[in-house]
UniProtKB/TrEMBL annotation:
<dbReference type="GO" id="GO:0003677">
    <property type="term" value="F:DNA binding"/>
</dbReference>
<feature type="region of interest" description="Disordered">
    <location>
        <begin position="1"/>
        <end position="20"/>
    </location>
</feature>
<keyword id="KW-0233">DNA recombination</keyword>
<dbReference type="InterPro" id="IPR013762">
    <property type="entry name" value="Integrase-like_cat_sf"/>
</dbReference>
<dbReference type="InterPro" id="IPR011010">
    <property type="entry name" value="DNA_brk_join_enz"/>
</dbReference>
<protein>
    <recommendedName>
        <fullName>Tyr recombinase domain-containing protein</fullName>
    </recommendedName>
</protein>
<dbReference type="GO" id="GO:0015074">
    <property type="term" value="P:DNA integration"/>
</dbReference>
<dbReference type="GO" id="GO:0006310">
    <property type="term" value="P:DNA recombination"/>
</dbReference>
Length: 349
């Protein structure tokens, strides 16, 4: 993730400075910075012995935020910010620090980046690192609100429509009763993708009980149509307890899920032993049809669909396809594109 360059002085010999040099911005080192340096040493030790706990990139972020705090302290974070680490991480000092960082006053090198997305990413890193310092020091910390995640579209969003059209074309080649289970599941799964934007692991873990579909017997339409998803915290939020989210589904997706649930019921009748609770199951000709589909299976299914759409695109363009017009074959790439599109739409609403 983008971040400013830490403040570092050259040694007398002109060589590369030690990380501790990043914390010498205050001429007479304040007590809070000395405490911060001790906490930083703990992270360095853990990094040397357990990189799965504190990775090299995470340590770099922690040292960067520590160096910024040392630079910000003499600029006037609060009257007591230099007295102790607890005072340095108090709400008023943290608020002042984040304002200085967001305004670019703590940069040590010129930058041409004015992208708000980059600024928000840097602020999320700052808040995560401040929380990590407080947690390690066992002092209270009131975490500021995280800036919202804003993604740039990675591919043209119309590719999602092409995939929808392809799946519907495939389904239209079969009478409804003879339609293969994999096509029925695919339409439902892609509908959930467009409505809910789940990661593959989140899709894999969905249960039938997470789905609420209530039929109005008079109109024969689905009235209540929601899906519960447990989104796994990402980035600086990793380690937090995930909270369930209830997402409303479109009418089309609800109808496709009803079709899939009917097929799903028939699949599990062939099984021996316990009945799976997962929403998404493997389908014939898979040898384990009826058992929960795994993340890798979702990935393989999506890639097969994306490849088929690309073949159609190539044929329509007589092979003259620009690189940016290639259909993404990774689920996550498409998910991020749809998320960015949704954020842009909501931002202009």
């Amino acid at each position: 993730m983008p971040m400013s360059t830490p403040a570092r002085h050259l040694s007398a010999s002109g060589g590369r400075p030690t990380p501790a040099a990043a914390l010498t911005a205050v001429p007479s080192t304040a007590a809070s910075i000395i405490e911060l340096e001790r906490i930083l040493d703990v992270f360095r030790t853990v990094n040397r012995t357990a990189k799965d706990v504190v990775s090299d990139s995470r340590l770099q972020q922690l040292e960067w935020v520590a160096s910024e705090l040392a630079l910000a302290l003499p600029l006037g974070l609060s009257e007591t910010a230099g007295d102790s680490l607890e005072d340095l991480l108090a709400p008023d000092a943290v608020h002042a620090y984040l304002l200085l960082g967001r305004g670019g006053f703590l940069r040590t090198m010129p930058t041409v980046s004015t992208d708000p997305t980059s600024v928000d990413s840097s602020e999320r890193i700052r808040i995560y690192c401040l929380e990590a310092f407080a947690r390690q020091a066992r002092i209270p910390f009131e975490a500021p609100d995280m800036p919202p995640m804003t993604l740039r579209p990675t591919v043209p969003p119309q590719f999602a429509d092409l995939i929808t059209d392809h799946l519907e074309d495939e389904a239209g080649q079969w009478p409804e009763v003879d339609r293969p289970d994999v096509i029925v599941r695919g339409l439902a799964m892609w509908g959930v993708m467009r409505d809910v934007l789940p990661r593959r692991g989140e899709l894999e873990s969905m249960l039938v009980d997470d789905l609420t579909l209530t039929m109005d017997m008079r109109t024969r339409k689905v009235q209540n149509r929601t899906l519960k998803i447990v989104r796994q915290p990402q980035g600086g939020l990793r380690g937090r307890e995930p909270e369930p989210e209830i997402v409303e589904l479109s009418e089309d997706t609800a109808e496709r899920l009803i079709d899939w649930l009917d097929r799903r019921d028939k699949l599990i009748t062939r099984l021996q032993g316990s009945v799976p609770e997962h929403l998404w199951l493997s389908t014939p000709p898979h040898p384990d049809s009826g058992v929960p589909i795994h993340s890798r299976g979702i990935s393989k299914w999506y890639k097969k669909v994306a490849d088929a759409v690309q073949v159609k695109q190539d044929a329509a363009a007589d092979g003259e396809i620009a690189e940016e017009d290639l259909v993404p074959t990774r689920w996550e790439t498409m998910r991020r594109t749809l998320l960015a599109q949704r954020q842009a739409t909501e931002g202009t609403a």
